[in-house]
Each structure stands twice: as C-alpha cells, then as structure tokens.
Amino acid sequence: xxxxxxxxxxxxxxxxxxxxxxxxxxxxxxxxxxxxxxxxxxxxxxxxxxxxxxxxxxxxxxxxxxxxxxxxxxxxxxxxxxxxxxxxxxxxxxxxxxxxxxxxxxxxxxxxxxxxxxxxxxxxxxxxxxxxxxxxxxxxxxxxxxxxxxxxxxxxxxxxxxxxxxxxxxxxxxxxxxxxxxxxxxxxxxxxxxxxxxxxxxxxxxxxxxxxxxxxxxxxxxxxxxxxxxxxxxxxxxxxxxxxxxxx
Length: 248
What we know:
With 248 residues, this protein is α/β, with parallel strands linked by helices. The chain has helices spanning 22-30, 45-54, 81-88, 93-100, 124-137, 161-172, 206-209, 223-234; strands at 6-10, 35-40, 62-65, 70-73, 78-79, 106-113, 116-121, 142-146, 151-155, 179-183, 197-200, 216-218.
C-alpha cells in the first residue's frame, strides 16, 4: 500500500467491460502503479475474477461482489469473514421464500449466489404484492427491481456497494478524496452521492444521471473509454485522443 496514492473503485459490467476501451484502460492502469483498483460488482467472485483477467485489468486491492454482500482482499481473493458475518446477522433466505410463497404472479427463478434470490414477477401489481408480503413477514432485506426482465432480486439489507467501499477504504487507510468511483447502473447510485469524485459513463441509465452531484463527471464516452476520460480529469492529466465513434 505504500506506493498507492489513488484508488479507482469501479463497477465492472457496462463500466469496465462491454463497450470497448478495455485494453486502453488496462494499459493505462498498468503504467500507473500508484493507482490501486477496487472492483464493485453484482457478479459472484469467480465470474468477476474471470472478467477482469480476460481484459487484462490489474489484481485488486479488494473486490466487493453480490452488490457489496461479500468483500474479498487481493490479490488472492480471500474472503473478509467479519464483513460476511455482518451480512448473515439479518439474512434469512427461508423467511424470504416463505413470505413470497403463494403470492400471485410471483415465482422463484433461482439463486445465483448464497446472497441473492431471484423471482419472476408477472406485472406491477404482483411486484407491489411481493414487497408488501416481505414487509408483513418482517423480513429484513433489500429488493432490486429489473424492469427489462421483470425480475425482483432479494438481497441482504447491508448489500450496498457504497457501504462496502467505505469499509474497504477504512481498512486500507485511504481517504475519500483519494478515491475515484465509476459506474453506469442504478445499483451504483450510492457510490455517487457526493462522498467521492467519480464518473458516470455515457451508457448509464438516465434516471441515475439526473441525480448526480457536481463532483461526478458525466462522460461523453461509453464504458472503459468513459472511465479513462473521467479518471484523467481527476488526475489532471492531458486527455488521450479517443476515436470519434465513441463520443456521445
């Protein structure tokens, strides 16, 4: 940690990967050993590790997976048991299943990890009924709604990227002003509430863009190009020449 001056804390899908620019950003980070990377993702550890290695991104200082439910420390990805214990204290998959069993228009769609239960929802009336049932059962949880897939995910209450990042930076003794965040989706919103400087890439959801404080750069570039654009501004470096096809 002695050589680390800055931390890039970034979402993966739609931000670091998926819209081009991955090799340029990976090369930039390889040339800047003073920048440590923290990955924050909805993916599981194995899936996230596969992606970052495929695109040549550096080993992390830490990684928060399942939207912040698990924290792993790099470069060997050992799990933070203290953080996991905090999630387990009020997480009860059985109570979630019991609460939603029999709710009309709601069906169990699978369990992508030990921290996430997915349910297919027929319509918005069923969505409201599902959320009401969870409250009536007294289940302590967060719900994540995917409108495109009509899917409701239920995760632990403490599964928040921003909360996990704050924990990680405290453990690393990194100040908020040394951290730069990057994201594109609704579940990145709590990273961008003004505690850190950061960038919202051009392919981000419009609703998230409307809620950003001034310390968050709204990049005209998508994906990794947007992260690199914002990161260079944060570091006060000359902007790299980018292909015009990536401009917003």
